[in-house]
Each structure stands twice: as C-alpha cells, then as structure tokens.
Amino acid sequence: MEEKTLEEVERDIQDIEDKELDIKPEPEDLVLEKEMELTGKEEEFLAKLRHEIRTWKASVSEYVYNTQGYIRGIQEEDDFSQEDIELFHAFLLVKDRSSYYFRTNFEKKLNKHLTKFDGKPESASYQLARILESLNPTVAESAMAA
User: Fold this and answer.
1) From CA 80, how far away is CA 67, in angstroms rounded?
2) Which of 11, 133, 131 has the alpha carbon at shortest distance from 60?
3) What pTM did the predictor assign?
C-alpha cells in the first residue's frame, strides 16, 4: 500500500470538508444568520465577547474544574483575532438555534481552532476555544441525556 504525501492527505481532508459544506440550512437558519450577520459588526461581537468573559469570571465557580482554569486564564483585554470573533459568533448562533447546520459550522471552526492553537494552552485563542467547547449547548444537552 502506497503512503500518501502530506499534500494528498490535506487534499483528501479538504474534499471531505467541501462535501460537508453541502449541508443545506433550513429557512429559520437563514433568517437567524441574516439577523446575526458578522460582517461589519466585528466590534459589536467583540464587545459581546468581552462582556461574556466578565460574566464567566463573575460566576467561575459554577463551571466544571477544567473550564474554571481556562476562564481564569483568559482576560477580556486579550487581543482576539478575527478567527476568535468568528468562533464566538458561530457559538452564539448554536446557542440561539441548535440546528444541524449551525452545530456543524461551529464544530468545524472549533476543531480548526483547537488544532491551530494546540500546544499553546496559554494563548487566549486556545482558552477561548476550550471555554466555548465546554459551554457548547449540544455538549450540555448530550451530558444531560446521559
């Protein structure tokens, strides 16, 4: 069996991700997506993120132990990238409407974020991704069902 090169593996992964992009949103998804459009509102969503960080810190003891560590490590003054804001935006969409379309979009962005910042646990981007992962409504629903 012939081993694939890194480029071939990346191309295969991209092909799989492209197929996943064929997920069609429901009409309700499109309405919410339009209402909560990110383009041109990055500062507004950054302000929401900073407010959310203050809220998490004020009630840090209510979260599971691992999440508490990430909450204590993240600072509202941290420099958040465009990718961080997009991840938070995707999280808010899932929180408002937990459709398959939004869950898939969020999980894709989350996995990409965690992979990119793996090995940099002190970075705000990694901590944010871990916090959002633990607060993901679909994760909470799965835990409650178990």
Assistant:
1) 19
2) 131
3) 0.75
